[in-house]
Amino acid sequence: MVAFERAGKRYGPHGEGGFTAVENVDLTVARGAITGIIGRSGAGKSTLIRMVNGLESATSGRVLVDGVDVGALSEEGLRGLRRQVGMIFQHFNLLSSRTAFDNVALPLEIAGVDKKTIRAKVGPLLDLVGLGDKQGNYPSELSGGQKQRVGIARALATDPKLLLSDEATSALDPETTQSILELLKRINAELGLTVLLITHEMEVVKTIASHVAVIDAGRIVEAGRTFDVYTNPKHQTTRTLLASALKLPEWLRSGIKAQPSVGDRALVRLVFFGETAFKPLTGRLVAELGSDVNILAGAIEEIGGEPFGSLVVSYSADPDVIARADRFYSETGLKTEVLGYVA
Ligand SMILES: Nc1ncnc2c1ncn2[C@@H]1O[C@H](COP(=O)(O)OP(=O)(O)OP(=O)(O)O)[C@@H](O)[C@H]1O
């Protein structure tokens, strides 16, 4: 549905004074799927997603939506594209002088739709997002979650086939975030809408995205099924993003170092799924390393209905202990990653 072909974006002049925000991105977004793009602040996420609806133009390569090169569209072509591509934003971007109803009606008014059709369309959309009783309320009278629901209804007004989500839950508390993600999931399933979202939170990706791409300094460093990337991350950026999503106590998280000093302990995430899920490997690891293994956190989670377990343990970073542990992992096929080192 969306294809980035060696797509890049450079702000300002070429050479000195310019800045390359996105570089050589090759990425395909499957029709009907929910795809997440995750990266740290400044990684280029907003630039990348805005290239899909022409809010930013590629300065190299191409971005195709349903085979159409966005960069080659005329102003009128772009307006047509934006009717097919809805967008929601971190700060909702509602007009404060308009009611919920009138905010949702706005794209239809702009498209020249008659009043009767607008009335027939907006009510059911507000019902769909659970705001049937708030049609006459102004944004200032709505909670953050309700404002985002209005934003979602507005994005759906022109019956788009693709929804872009720019950090749509970043300004919301965890509970409201979950309810908005549930709503997006339902819309994806019920309307068959393709969703492309950007976020800096692994939890968001894990909750709703079937596929994920990790962006770092303007480049996609890893992409694939969310389950695969989450259970077997290959790139250091992905590992760092995952580590920050683990529910480790603050005292432990803040003490993590990239390199060990003498006497430090390795902090290791063990991932259990598929064949390794049902083997009593933790006991064997403890037997292998002596009683030196500390279990610090553990959870059974699932992505897209596929369960997996993760356990965070620490043990001596002494090279001999590390070598024994690594031998054990390669013999058993247990997936692991070193999160860092702690004193
Ligand atoms: N109009 C612009 N002119 C020059 N540089 C820009 C412009 N817009 C963004 N940038 C730079 O491009 C880089 C990527 O910005 P972008 O907003 O795409 O990142 P992001 O991953 O969405 O970050 P955040 O999550 O903080 O919004 C940043 O270093 C930013 O300063």
TrEMBL record:
<dbReference type="InterPro" id="IPR017871">
    <property type="entry name" value="ABC_transporter-like_CS"/>
</dbReference>
<keyword id="KW-1278">Translocase</keyword>
<keyword id="KW-0029">Amino-acid transport</keyword>
<dbReference type="InterPro" id="IPR003439">
    <property type="entry name" value="ABC_transporter-like_ATP-bd"/>
</dbReference>
<dbReference type="InterPro" id="IPR018449">
    <property type="entry name" value="NIL_domain"/>
</dbReference>
<protein>
    <recommendedName>
        <fullName>Cell division ATP-binding protein FtsE</fullName>
    </recommendedName>
</protein>
<dbReference type="InterPro" id="IPR041701">
    <property type="entry name" value="MetN_ABC"/>
</dbReference>
<dbReference type="Pfam" id="PF00005">
    <property type="entry name" value="ABC_tran"/>
</dbReference>
<feature type="domain" description="ABC transporter">
    <location>
        <begin position="2"/>
        <end position="242"/>
    </location>
</feature>
<dbReference type="Pfam" id="PF09383">
    <property type="entry name" value="NIL"/>
</dbReference>
<dbReference type="GO" id="GO:0005886">
    <property type="term" value="C:plasma membrane"/>
</dbReference>
<dbReference type="InterPro" id="IPR045865">
    <property type="entry name" value="ACT-like_dom_sf"/>
</dbReference>
<keyword id="KW-0813">Transport</keyword>
<dbReference type="InterPro" id="IPR003593">
    <property type="entry name" value="AAA+_ATPase"/>
</dbReference>
<dbReference type="InterPro" id="IPR027417">
    <property type="entry name" value="P-loop_NTPase"/>
</dbReference>
<dbReference type="GO" id="GO:0006865">
    <property type="term" value="P:amino acid transport"/>
</dbReference>
<keyword id="KW-0547">Nucleotide-binding</keyword>
<dbReference type="GO" id="GO:0005524">
    <property type="term" value="F:ATP binding"/>
</dbReference>
<comment type="function">
    <text>Part of the ABC transporter FtsEX involved in cellular division. Important for assembly or stability of the septal ring.</text>
</comment>
<comment type="similarity">
    <text>Belongs to the ABC transporter superfamily.</text>
</comment>
<keyword id="KW-0472">Membrane</keyword>
<keyword id="KW-1003">Cell membrane</keyword>
<dbReference type="GO" id="GO:0016887">
    <property type="term" value="F:ATP hydrolysis activity"/>
</dbReference>
<keyword id="KW-0067">ATP-binding</keyword>
<dbReference type="InterPro" id="IPR050086">
    <property type="entry name" value="MetN_ABC_transporter-like"/>
</dbReference>
